[in-house]
Amino acid sequence: MGRPRTPLIDRARITTAALELVDAKGEFSVVQIARKLGVQTGSLYHHVDGRDGIVELLRERVCEAIDASMFDASPWDAALAAWARSYRAAFAAHPRAIPLLMASPVRAPRVLEHYERAVGLLLDAGFALADVMRVIIALENLILGSALDLAAPEPMWELGDDQRDTPRLALALAAAPLGRADAAFELALGACLEGFRALVD
C-alpha cells in the first residue's frame, strides 16, 4: 500500500493530541498520543524529540495565545499589565498544563523570544539588570496562580448552615463581589506594578 497523500501525523497534530490529553487528565504519554492518532509509537519520534520535545510543543501552543504586541505599547507599566492579562488568559484556557510546563526548563525558541522582549521592555524602562528577572518571575507567579484560581469553583469556601464558628468569614464572603478571581488578580496586579514602579524610582 502506498503512502497516504496527507501525512497521518505531524508536529501540529501531535501537539493537539497531547494538549487534549493534558486538558482532560493533566498528563500525557507518548503511547497515549500514538494511540489517539492511530499510529505506531515509533512514528512519533520521526517528528518530535521524545517527551521533552512534546512538552515544549505544548508550551509553544499555549503561549501562541499570548499577545506579544503588548511589548510595543507604552508606558512600560501599561504594557506589562496588558501582557500579564493576556498571559493569564492563555494559561487559564489550559490550567492542567501549568504544573506540567512548570516542571521543565523553557527551551522553545518562540517562548524565549517573549522573555527577550519582556527583558527589553524593563531595561528600556530603566530597571536595574539585577531586578529584571525578579520582576518577571514575581509577575509570573501571580499570573499562573491566578490562572489556576480561575479553574477553581466559584464558591471556594463552604461554611455549612451553622456559621457560629466563622461569623467574620461569612460576612466577608457575603460582601465579596462576584468574579472573585478576576477581582483578586487585578488587586494583586496593581500592587505588583506599584512595587515595580518603586524599583525604577
UniProtKB/TrEMBL annotation:
BP terms from Gene Ontology: negative regulation of DNA-templated transcription; response to antibiotic
Q: Which PANTHER family match?
A: HTH-TYPE TRANSCRIPTIONAL REGULATOR RUTR (PTHR30055), TRANSCRIPTIONAL REGULATORY PROTEIN (PTHR30055:SF151)
Q: Does the keyword Repressor apply?
A: yes
Entry's Gene Ontology molecular function annotations: DNA-binding transcription factor activity; transcription cis-regulatory region binding
Protein name per Swiss-Prot or TrEMBL = TetR/AcrR family transcriptional regulator
Start and end residues of each HTH tetR-type domain = 8-66
* DNA-binding positions: 29-48
Record organism: Streptomyces jumonjinensis
> What are the UniProt keywords, alphabetically?
DNA-binding, Repressor, Transcription, Transcription regulation
